[in-house]
């Protein structure tokens, strides 16, 4: 309790997703301006909870990640030192974060093609920042780096999962486990994210999906303000179920049933003669047995068995089926 707590906050700053979140047709629309005001109140509460508490804020923009706070730039806002109604450290924090976000959004321009949000890059920077400040020489009196900072990461997400980011996200999860860093996730808008669910579950953090976005600040204060040491005596909300599905290494699709390489643990959506990662060759009889045990994929047609219209198979599904048939022919030819 004598030591401070460190919070690394990662904000998903996808302009397209925030535009959808502010749509009045939503049950509980949340604009980015309101969201940012609630976030600034939350980080001010974290700083005010204890003098030794530290904070770092990272922004996940389309195609890049930026450290928003602390910033090496000095502010030139004259109202920071002259406003008698605002505590100056809070005013400085709010001004730096808001100015850096506005500057980065202006640099994005008005391009119609928005790049994927660099959420993994922001998560990696947060882990590197924690590791750099928590590292102490071996044998010193403060060798326990975890007790020194009590670190945690909070991700405020509005973007859907990106299947190509599965491997980097898992690597970040393993790094967080090694550093004993809790990863909390607050899904502000959009469908549940499978990868962030796994990140929160595997690191001992909390994953919360906002059902009432008009109570966003209450969710932050009640669920994510307590430190990891305080959560041992509090009833912190936990997720009821976790989706442990993975993305295949061949097509980057999220699969329900996968085939794992016994050497490097790479995941594939169908049996392969040679692992594309470690180049291991598998026996022909093993491939035949795996292909025979695969579930039957129904053919694409206009209607299903229960009368519900069914869309034609996508390009990725057709590609997988075609490759599977080709491999079956190759196996029969070799046998």
What can be said about this structure in brief?
The chain is of the alpha/beta class and 335 residues long. It has helices spanning 15-21, 32-49, 79-82, 88-108, 119-134, 145-149, 166-179, 194-202, 216-224, 284-292, 315-334; strands spanning 6-12, 54-61, 64-69, 151-157, 182-187, 207-209, 246-247, 254-255, 259-260, 267-268. Helix 8 (194-202) links the parallel strand 5 and strand 6.
What does this structure look like?
- This is General transcription and DNA repair factor IIH subunit TFB4.
- The chain is of the alpha/beta class.
- 39% of the residues lie in helices and 13% in strands.
- The strands form 3 sheets. It has a 6-stranded mixed sheet, with helices on both faces. The chain has a two-stranded antiparallel sheet with strand order 7-8.
- The C terminus is likely disordered.
């Amino acid at each position: 309790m004598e030591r401070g707590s460190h919070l690394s906050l990662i904000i998903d700053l996808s302009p397209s997703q925030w535009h959808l979140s502010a749509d009045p047709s939503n049950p509980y629309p949340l604009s980015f301006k309101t969201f940012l005001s609630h976030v600034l109140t939350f980080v001010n509460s974290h700083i005010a909870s204890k003098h030794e508490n530290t904070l770092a804020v990272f922004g996940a923009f389309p195609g890049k990640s930026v450290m928003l706070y602390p910033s090496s730039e000095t502010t030139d806002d004259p109202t920071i030192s002259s406003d008698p109604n605002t505590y100056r450290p809070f005013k400085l924090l709010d001004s730096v974060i808001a100015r850096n976000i506005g500057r980065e959004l202006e640099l994005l321009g008005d391009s119609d093609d928005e790049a994927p949000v660099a959420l993994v890059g922001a998560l990696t920077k947060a882990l590197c920042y924690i590791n750099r400040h928590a590292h102490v020489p071996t044998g010193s009196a403060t060798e326990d780096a975890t007790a020194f900072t009590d670190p945690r990461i909070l991700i405020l997400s509005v973007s859907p999962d990106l299947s190509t980011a599965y491997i980097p996200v898992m690597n970040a999860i393993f790094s967080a486990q090694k550093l004993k860093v809790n990863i909390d996730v607050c899904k502000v808008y959009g469908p549940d994210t499978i990868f962030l669910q796994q990140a929160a579950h595997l690191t001992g953090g909390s994953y919360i999906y906002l059902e009432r976005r008009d109570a966003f600040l209450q969710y932050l204060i009640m669920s994510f303000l307590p430190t990891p040491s305080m959560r041992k005596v509090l009833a912190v909300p936990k997720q009821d179920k976790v989706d442990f599905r993975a993305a295949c290494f061949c097509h980057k699709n999220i699969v329900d049933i996968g085939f794992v390489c016994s050497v490097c643990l790479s995941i594939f959506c169908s049996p392969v003669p040679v692992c594309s990662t470690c180049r291991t060759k598998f026996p022909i009889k093993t491939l035949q047995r795996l292909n025979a045990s695969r579930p039957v994929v129904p053919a694409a047609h206009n209607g299903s068995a229960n009368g519900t219209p069914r869309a034609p198979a996508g390009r990725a599904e057709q590609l997988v089926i075609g490759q599977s048939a080709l491999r079956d022919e190759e196996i029969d030819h070799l046998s």
